[in-house]
Amino acid sequence: MRITLIITSLGGGGAERALVLLAQGLVQRGYAVTVITLSGEDTDCYLLHSKVKRIGLDLRQKSSTILHQVVRTAVRLMRLRQAVQVSQPDMVISFMSSMNIYAGLALFQTKYPIIGTEHCSPTLLPAGYPWELFRRPIYRRLQRLVSVSQGIDDEFTWLAKAKRSVIYNPFLPVKPLQGQFYCPKGADPTKKWITAMGRFVHAKGFDILLTAFQKVADQHPDWQLLILGEGELRSELEALQKRLNLSKRLVFVGRLSDPFPLLQRSKLFVLSSRTEGLPMALGEALSCGLPAIATDCSKGIRELIQDNINGLVVPNQNVAELAAAMHYLMANEIKRDRLASQAPKVLEKFSLDKVMDQWEALMTEILQE
After folding, report:
1. Can you tell me the distance from the alpha carbon of 149 to that of 76, in angstroms, rounded to the nearest whole number?
2. Which H helix or E strand runs over 224?
3. Could you give the C-alpha distances from 132 to 77, 93, 135, 139, 257, in angstroms and in order?
4. What is the pLDDT of residue 73?
5. How many angstroms separate the CA atoms of 187 and 136, rounded?
6. Which part of the chain has CATH 3.40.50.2000?
7. Assigned architecture for domain 192-349
């Protein structure tokens, strides 16, 4: 059976990481897998399984005018349709809202069953053309819309229940650290590390994290904050770092294809997002045995964290509460160890095998239909 997965790029991010894991699980179960991206392969951050066929269309160039944008969109749709046809899939799975819409348009009046996946709240979609114009009619034509958390699925009640499913993102067991550890530039290995991870965009709330950390940093001179990722707000965050006098206490590590050694070396993980779906960064931190603090920014947070058992949940966008929780765990090693001991149990609910069982059951059901 041939499965084609399509996404904008593999340039880093939770949905991209979820695609890589799904592709791995499909290959391990004997499927022939093709991954198609609008971007070229030179932008890839994650490595796919060696048996996955990779097609990069290199169509991410920005448009300077509305006319050019229309032409570029038409070219993207045509090229995407051709690439999918070349892969001859029995099933197409698209990742994130924009690609769900692209898939629905590009593959209109073809035989391919399409499963769209949602990884964050639909309220984050750009307003106006083409999203609001096409989303509802296209989603109604999908064979299924799969949300990665119950909280996201709850936002699609306008879509028939028979058209919706919830399948969580998987997390993998993490191998123990072996050999020499790479220490990022600027990171002090003699200090305890708080780690955060994600794209530098407004939704991830890194400005909230920096402000909260500044409130407690002087009380904990033996701690350092490390942030993994890149994005459009990098310069703004660096400017905030200077205003808060955190130049020696905060390190922007950049994007890492393998963040797990750094996560395992850390003592605390913080997710300060304003909104999320089922955050891969948080799940992967828990799978590493890291005690975690997360803002109560979506129902998906409570699907990963049991408050005061494997982590702490604080009110969303509340700098004072986030700072207080950070101070509490930074000062309390016993509490950190207690939370850390429960963190890896996230793998019991979100293992790759369990997730693949659900995907196989869904695909079988759709093909029977």
Report:
1. 30
2. strand 223-228
3. 18, 21, 6, 11, 34
4. 86
5. 47
6. 2-170+351-368, 192-349
7. 3-Layer(aba) Sandwich (3.40)
pLDDT of 62 > 80? The answer is no
Measure the CA–CA gap between 122 and 113, rounded to whole angstroms: 22
The secondary element (H helix, E strand) that includes residue 223 is strand 223-228
- Condensed to tens digits (0 to 9), the pLDDT of residues 3-49 reads 999 999 998 888 999 999 999 999 999 999 999 999 999 888 888 99
β-pairing verdict for 223-228 and 192-197: parallel
Please state the length of the chain.
Answer: 369
Specify whether domain 2-170+351-368 bears CATH 2.40.50.140. no
Predicted confidence (pLDDT) at residue 356 exceeds the cutoff of 80: yes
Give every strand in the sheet of 292-295, ordered side by side: 250-254, 223-228, 192-197, 268-271, 292-295, 311-314
In this prediction, what percent of the chain has a pLDDT beyond 70? 96
Q: Quote the pTM value.
A: 0.89
What sign for the dihedral angle of Cα 138, 140, 145, 151? Answer: positive
Cα 367 from chain centre: 28
CB neighbourhood size of 155 (10 A):
17
Coil, strand, or helix at residue 250?
strand
φ and ψ of 255, to 5 deg: -85, 130
Q: Which residues are CB-neighbours of 169 under 8 A, at least 6 positions away?
A: 14, 17, 18, 21, 119, 148, 278, 280, 283, 350, 355
**Token pair of 34 as six digits:** 């093709």
Query: What tokens does 253 get?
Result: 């590590």
Is the backbone peptide bond immediately before 130 cis, with ω within 30 degrees of 0?
A: yes
* Element holding 100 (H helix, E strand): helix 97-106
306-335 residue pLDDT tens: 999 999 999 999 999 999 999 999 999 999
**Tokens describing residue 146:** 């799969």
Mean pLDDT of 215-242: 96
DSSP bridge pairs for 7? 37
